[in-house]
Amino acid sequence: xxxxxxxxxxxxxxxxxxxxxxxxxxxxxxxxxxxxxxxxxxxxxxxxxxxxxxxxxxxxxxxxxxxxxxxxxxxxxxxxx
Length: 81
Fold this sequence. Notes:
This protein is of the alpha+beta class. Helix content is 32%, strand content 28%.
């Protein structure tokens, strides 16, 4: 049970951070026992990279849908995506 930092983003996703301390079960130098305990938890204000990418894609799709709806309302316009 070695100790690591835990990074947690505002979207709820988390990721293990830096190694901090060995436990008493590990006797080999430079090795960890494989079990992870949280030494410190760091709250990140931004969202994770996956959520940021999804937001960008959804924003792009929403923008295109708005353009298509606007073209339909205008009528008589031959436009394509």
